Amino acid sequence: MKQGVKKMKIVIDIEKAFESDFSLVEMTNGHRHTIKAYGSWNQWSGSDDYDRLNQEDYINYIIEHERTEVDHYEIADSEQDAIESEIIEEEGGFI
User: Fold this and answer.
1) 13-17, 28-32, 39-43, 87-91: lowest mean pLDDT where?
2) DSSP at 3
3) What distance in Å separates the CA atoms of residue 34 and residue 52, rounded to the nearest whole number?
4) For the sheet containing 9-11, what is the strand order?
5) Reported pTM
6) Cβ(21)–Cβ(92) under 8 Å?
7) How far apart are CA 75 and CA 44, in angstroms?
8) How far is CA 70 from CA 30, 31, 61, 65, in A?
9) In this predicted structure, what is the pLDDT of residue 65?
10) Between the CA atoms of 95, 52, 57 and 90, what dihedral angle is there, to the nearest 10 degrees?
């Protein structure tokens, strides 16, 4: 990550992460996954559900298959903050 102050906010409440336009979940094993970017939900091909339910399925899959737990969720207020906090890639893609 670039030098400087992280501009993301760590939140405990999953609802805040799901409401934010830029959000990420970090697991206790270090696995980081973008939930939303630019208000659009990341889509996991392992679930037939969409949006929030799709992401809940993915998080539960990671918990089960990597034997880990959710450490925290991160949210950012802007594209630049999301890039600096590594919620999204510099090109705007999902992590």
Assistant:
1) 13-17
2) S
3) 12
4) 9-11, 70-76, 22-27, 32-37, 40-41
5) 0.86
6) no
7) 20
8) 10, 9, 12, 13
9) 98
10) 0
